[in-house]
Amino acid sequence: MALNLIKQIAVIRQRLLATKTLSAKFYTGSLYEPDYLETGKPKFPLLSTINVQIKGYNYPVLECYQSFIHKLADVIQIDIDNGWPLPPQEFTIQKYKTATTIIMSKYYLKIYERNIQMSEVPSIKCSVLIRALEAALPQGVTLNINIYDPISEEKRYVPDKELIDLKASLDTLKNKT
């Protein structure tokens, strides 16, 4: 289903490119400004940077969906700047017998997360991208699309324990003197 969607988008893109070459070019410049000042500007507004965040319990499904996002962005001609995984979040879920504190069963869950960063996305292509991603969303995977936030990028860096310990010892030495 996902590959058929990519093929359909590629066919639509080729048709649009074919009709663009056949259409006549009209004069769009003003009387006092040359045409080349207008040619560099995009016709539609651009979104600065967006983050596509996907989360799921099943690692292989999440990896497959991430590769689908990369292929779809390539077909739509959206540049992917960066992509990174985050360490899985681990949860323990306990099921109790009714009206007791006796544990009946215990479940260990991991939630995997992937982030994909895209920049200068035209607003029209962004709406097509979002609809295609929602249509091909696998079961058990959540999709969040947000505007770039520097705080979300800080989560990807693992703190260096040795560096933190050295800074703490340096602070204690400064306080002693």
TrEMBL record:
What SUPFAM superfamilies does this protein map onto?
Answer: Ribosomal protein S10
* Keywords for the protein's UniProt record, in alphabetical order: Ribonucleoprotein, Ribosomal protein
Task: Give the UniProt entry's GO cellular component terms.
Answer: mitochondrial ribosome; ribonucleoprotein complex
Q: Which residues form the Small ribosomal subunit protein uS10 domain?
A: 51-146
**According to the lineage, what is the superkingdom?**
Eukaryota
Q: Which SMART domains match?
A: Ribosomal_S10
Name the UniProt record assigns to this protein? Small ribosomal subunit protein uS10 domain-containing protein
Origin organism is: Atta cephalotes
The encoding gene is 105625473
